[in-house]
Structure formats: structure tokens, C-alpha cells
């Protein structure tokens, strides 16, 4: 207490009223009043705005609208927090200046510290900025299946956690990988818009390709209207015919546009149906030849 009184006494001069007196408040009422009013208003508006968007996210599902609301609420919460901190920092500096404290060293020290922190934490800043743009642009959301190409390699799996600095990806073998957002170079999102299921069917070279194509077309016409394919497919499947010849087989391809989250499910189900139908119709598979090239993707 004695130390505080001593500081206030030193801050006061012959021409400057004593701090926190009526004359002192009269002298500095405009700058102090303006800064504190702005800080309070920004705090109230920012918090109400953030609460409003958080309440909107509670009623959102996992559809595109629900993901958009979550992104907006996250970005608004981040920006409002930054604005509130800046507003109160300006008020504190104004108060110190009106108390007679020389704020130039404080500002200079803050600049030096900021530069030091900036050099030491530049990767954190880079990751945070990258995460902010991921939120704003909606490159991916929690639950999306993605391939993230980074400087250390490609990470594939399902997004489990997404924040400003890192993205957590659950890979197909169960491994949870945490990727700094600043290291992500290319994002391949497998659960947006639509997907294309591609099934390559190898048959023996001595089989009639027209006959095989007819059998496959009958099959896809049947299964397209059966559940669950009737929900997963966006259009009827197409048999593209022979797409490749090897020294032991001819490759027939089936392609169909699907809902993005069920592309792999459609491929598995079509393969199972094709195997059963080929067995029924006596269509022979090619012999296994070591070193036979895989069908193109």
C-alpha cells in the first residue's frame, strides 16, 4: 500500500492533479471514458455474439449446414477473444499514461518481447493461421475421410479433432495421428459432394467379352434398385467394357457415382455380387500368374 502511494505521489506533478481525484477525473474523462466504454461494449457484444452462434450449433447435425455453423462459431469465438484482449490492453495503456507513467518503455518492451516470441513461436503462428483458413474455407470437418499430404508424407483416415493448431486423424489401422495444420500441403477430401465406385472384374481371355458385359449389365440393373444400393447410388451403374488386357486376363470395369461416404461400401457389395453371378453363369476367372500387373485405379 505504501509502495502504491509512493508511485502515485511520484506520478503527480505540479501541473498534474493527484491521481483519482475529482480534478484528475475531469482532466482525463474523455480518453479514459472512451477507451473503457469501447472495451466494455466490445466485450459484451463479442460474448453475446459468441454465445448466440454456439447456441445455433447445438441444433445442427452432421450435414453441410451443421458443419458450416460449427465453423462459423469457432471463427467468431476466436476473433471476438482477440478483439476483447486488444481493447482492454489499450485501456490499460491509456490509464497508465494518464497516471503519468511513461508507457514508451512498456511499448518498446512489448515490441521486443513480441519479436522474440515471434521468432521462437513462428511455427505455432503458422499452424494457427493455417487452421484459421481451414475453418473459414471449410476444407474438411470432423467425421470427413481425408488424405492429408504433408512435408513428412501422406496421412489418410477420418478427422477426429480439428482445432486451430492441429488436426487429429484416425487412420484405418486405428492409429491416431496429430498433424500440425501448417505442414498440410494438399487436402484430398473423400466425403464431399460425390464419390465414384470402380470395380474391375478380371475374366479369362477365352471368355466372350460381349457375353460377360451382358451378364454384368443384368446384374447391375438388378442390384441398383435393391437396398442399400438404392440409397447409396446417385445414378445407375455403368459397365464400361474391357479396359485392359494382360497376358492372362481381360479386365471388365464397372463404374458408378455414389454418395461420398459409401464409395468403399458400394465397391465391396458389387464385388460380392459379381463373384456370385459369375459363378452362376459359369464365367471363368483368369489363372493366377505371378507378377501379373494390377488393374489401373
Q: Helices and strands: which structural class? A: alpha+beta
Walk across the major sheet and give the strand order: 4-3-2-1-5
Quaternary assembly: single chain
Order of helices and strands: HHHHHEEEEEEHHEEH
What percent strand?
Answer: 15-25%
Gyration radius, rounded: 32 Å
End-to-end Cα distance, whole Å, is 77 Å
Instruction: Compute the average pLDDT.
Output: 80
Unreliable residue runs: 1-14
Total helical elements:
8
- Total strands: the figure is 8
> How many strands, which pairing sense, and closed or not: the largest β-sheet?
5 strands, antiparallel
Describe the structure.
The chain is of the alpha+beta class and 297 residues long. It folds into 3 domains: 17-120, Orthogonal Bundle (Helix Hairpins), CATH 1.10.287; 139-189, SH3 type barrels; 195-281, Alpha-Beta Plaits, CATH 3.30.70.100. It has 8 helices and 8 strands; from the N terminus they run αααααββββββααββα. The chain has helices spanning 2-11, 22-58, 64-98, 104-120, 122-137, 209-223, 229-232, 263-281, and strands spanning 145-150, 153-162, 166-170, 176-180, 184-189, 195-204, 238-245, 249-258. The strands form 2 sheets. It has a 5-stranded antiparallel β-sheet with strand order 4-3-2-1-5. A hairpin with a 2-residue loop joins β1 and β2 (153-162). Residues 1-14 have low confidence and may be disordered.
Amino acid at each position: 500500500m505504501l509502495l502504491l502511494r509512493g508511485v502515485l505521489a511520484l506520478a503527480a506533478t505540479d501541473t498534474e492533479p493527484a491521481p483519482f481525484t475529482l480534478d484528475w477525473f475531469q482532466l482525463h474523462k474523455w480518453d479514459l471514458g472512451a477507451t473503457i466504454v469501447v472495451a466494455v461494449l466490445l466485450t459484451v457484444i463479442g460474448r453475446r455474439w459468441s454465445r448466440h452462434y454456439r447456441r445455433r450449433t447445438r441444433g445442427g447435425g452432421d450435414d453441410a449446414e451443421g458443419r458450416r455453423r460449427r465453423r462459423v462459431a469457432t471463427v467468431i469465438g476466436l476473433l471476438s477473444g482477440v478483439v476483447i484482449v486488444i481493447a482492454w490492453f489499450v485501456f490499460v495503456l491509456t490509464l497508465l499514461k494518464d497516471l503519468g507513467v511513461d508507457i514508451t518503455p512498456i511499448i518498446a518492451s512489448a515490441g521486443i518481447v513480441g519479436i522474440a516470441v515471434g521468432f521462437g513461436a513462428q511455427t505455432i503462428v503458422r499452424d494457427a493461421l493455417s487452421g484459421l483458413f481451414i475453418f473459414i474455407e471449410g476444407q474438411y470437418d470432423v467425421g470427413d475421410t481425408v488424405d492429408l499430404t504433408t512435408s513428412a508424407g501422406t496421412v489418410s483416415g477420418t478427422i477426429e479433432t480439428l482445432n486451430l493448431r492441429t488436426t487429429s486423424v484416425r487412420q484405418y489401422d486405428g492409429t491416431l495421428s496429430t498433424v500440425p495444420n501448417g505442414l498440410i500441403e494438399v487436402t484430398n477430401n473423400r466425403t464431399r459432394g460425390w464419390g465414384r465406385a470402380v470395380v474391375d472384374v478380371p475374366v479369362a481371355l477365352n471368355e466372350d467379352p460381349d457375353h460377360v458385359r451382358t451378364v454384368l449389365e443384368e446384374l447391375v440393373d438388378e442390384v441398383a434398385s435393391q437396398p442399400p444400393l438404392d440409397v447409396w447410388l446417385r445414378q445407375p451403374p455403368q459397365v464400361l467394357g474391357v479396359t485392359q488386357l494382360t497376358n492372362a486376363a481381360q479386365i471388365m470395369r464397372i463404374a458408378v457415382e455414389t454418395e461420398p461416404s459409401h464409395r468403399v461400401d458400394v465397391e465391396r457389395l458389387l464385388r460380392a455380387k459379381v463373384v456370385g453371378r459369375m459363378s452362376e453363369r459359369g464365367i471363368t476367372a483368369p489363372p493366377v500368374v505371378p507378377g501379373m500387373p494390377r488393374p489401373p485405379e
